[in-house]
Design goal:
The protein is of the alpha+beta class and 99 residues long. 21% of the residues lie in helices and 35% in strands.
Amino acid sequence: MADLKYYDVILKPVITEKSMNAMGEKKYTFLVHTEATKSQIKEAVEKMFEGTKVASVNTMNMDGKKRRRGMVVGKTAKTKKAIVKLTEESADIEIFEGL
């Protein structure tokens, strides 16, 4: 297992219509490192965003999609997605504000 620091765990936020609707329930979606655990994701969110308190973390591993270039068939990289639910008294995450 890789020695991950908290700033290496979260790669980028997921901005989709479904993830934006979930923000009303204080659920935020991120692409995370493929070897990150739920406890590492929780620690990273609480350290990177001031005033946040994580209630739960749900993760899903997504396989790469098949892509063709002529006759050659390849696959894109596999990814891991995490849905982080914050507590009621927690502050909102600012990077999602105004979207």
